Amino acid sequence: MDELDATIHQPARLQIMAALCQLSPRNQVDFSFLKAKLGLTDGNLGAHLLTLEEKGYIAVEKTFVARRPKTFVAATAAGRRAFDAHAAALKAILKP
Amino acid sequence: MNISPEEAARALGDIEASRTTMRVVIRSHRGHYHLWLWGSIWAAMALLAEYLGLPGMRIANCLVLGGFAASALIILGQKTQVRSTGHKRFVGMLAAIVVFAFVWPLVLRGPANPKSGFAYSALVSMFCYIMAGIWFDIYLLWVGLVVSALILTGLFFFPAIFWWWIAVLCGGTLIGTGFYVRFFWR
């Protein structure tokens, strides 16, 4: 039976992982866009991303687009597995 | 870690809300505009060939050039909220395929007639769709396979109605897939 993951369960990180896992495995999302969509501040999102990155759930890539620094984020295979297991555990709680 | 059913329900609601947000973004980056554009161009090219013959094919070539320009504008107009990794290598691979696709007919002394010529170039573009499907997004693989099968079926089994076959079934499949991807793909 799948178990809840305390790292993912934190509300902001749960939304981050849900958003990233919706993308196909080869896609990355822009940090600023993710921040706007989730209603988080730079520092807040950065801290949550660091936590998820340390667990190996996401990969962060810093690059330049049109000479401007950009950060792109994607869920790793391990992150997708962990998120799926967490979502399955949440659904299992709701089953009678 | 233990949580109440209410908290679990709330978490699942948050997950769904976040997924819905991303779906909207993903849809805007999928290729439905290209599918609509090229489905229309294919249909127009086939009907021009059917009713105008060789002069129609010349107009069709202008349509293709216009299509490439329109596709480039669509790509430039897309925001970079979501991007694909390794896309530069993929574009390089596609460029190599297209260059060799021009060379092979020269070596083999070209397609025998306009129908097989159209089928050849259409199959090359569907090969690119299949590669893109394997690399990026699975729906492109299915579009490539289905349309390739339709092209070959029309060429070998229904040559008398080939141009209408291409216009309705192949062009229609591309346009229809564009609508499916835009409104229903998850």
- Biggest sheet statistics of chain B: none
H-E string of chain A: HHEHHEEH
Which oligomeric form is depicted? heterodimer
Number of helices of chain A: 5
What is the CATH class designation of chain A?
Answer: Mainly Alpha
Q: What percent of residues of chain A adopt helix (DSSP H or I)?
A: 55-70%
Largest sheet of chain A: 3 strands, antiparallel
Largest interface: A-B, 32 and 29 residues
Q: Helices and strands of chain A: which structural class? A: alpha+beta
Low-pLDDT stretches of chain B = none
Q: How many extended strands of chain A?
A: 3
The percent of residues in helical segments of chain B reads over 70%
Tell me the number of structural domains of chain B: 1
CATH topology of chain A: Arc Repressor Mutant, subunit A
The percent range for strand residues of chain B is under 5%
| Straight-line N-to-C gap of chain B | 31 Å
Strand portion of chain A, in percent? 15-25%
The overall strand count of chain B is: 1
Shape of chain A: elongated
> Runs of chain A with pLDDT <50, length 5+?
none
Name given to the CATH architecture of chain A: Orthogonal Bundle
Quick summary of this structure?
Chain A is an alpha+beta fold and about 100 residues long. Chain A is built from five helices and three strands, in the order H-H-E-H-H-E-E-H.
Label this structure with key terms.
heterodimer, A: alpha+beta, Arc Repressor Mutant, subunit A, 21% strand, elongated, B: mainly alpha, 83% helix
Question: In words, what does this structure look like?
Answer:
The complex is a heterodimer of chains A (96) and B (186). Helix content of chain A is 57%, strand content 21%. Chain A is of the alpha+beta class and 96 residues long. In chain A, strands 1-3-2 form a three-stranded antiparallel β-sheet. The longest helix of chain A has 18 residues. Chain A is elongated and about 55 Å long. The relative contact order of chain A is 0.24. The model of chain A has no long low-confidence stretch (mean pLDDT 89). Chain B has one domain. In chain B, 83% of the residues lie in helices and 2% in strands. In chain B, helix 2 packs antiparallel against helix 3 and helix 4 packs antiparallel against helix 5. Chain B is elongated and about 70 Å long. Classes of the chains: A alpha+beta (96), B mainly alpha (186). Chains A and B meet through helix 2, strand 1, helix 3, strand 3 and helix 5 of A and helix 1 and strand 1 of B. Strand 1 of chain A pairs antiparallel with strand 1 of chain B, so a sheet runs across the interface.
